[in-house]
# Entry
Amino acid sequence: MFGMILKKIFGSQNERNLKRIAPLVDEVNGFEPAIRSLSDAALAAKTGEFRQRLSNGEELDEILPEAFAVVREASIRTLGMRPFDVQIIGGIVLHQGKIAEMKTGEGKTLAATLPVYLNALSGRGVHVVTVNDYL
# Structure
């Protein structure tokens, strides 16, 4: 009974986590117009810019919103698929080293491209494991 009251007041663990992530999703969305206006060459040059910023002491978490916006735009241009906010949330959760449970059709593969790109910028490599041969 007491637990249900607390849940009503503070929300579930999932709701609290989503509330913490929402500002990051808003930041990613905020970069979208500027990133969309970049040429293909300028979009590709963002990778070098991000690596330089990391070598200058910025952290992955600091460049996450802009890097995710770059991946979103690259996905639109190359695949014709735009990662939606739910996929951005999944990517953030994966970057944080947590498990993101997503239903069939919610775009797990597309969501995984976001933290893969971000973490590959460090130059240390990224491993992706899937149980499906076609992914």
Observations:
- The chain has six helices and no strands.
- The mean pLDDT is 91.
- Residues 13-120 form a domain with the Rossmann fold fold (CATH 3.40.50.300).
- Helices lie at 2-10, 13-36, 40-55, 60-79, 85-95, 108-120.
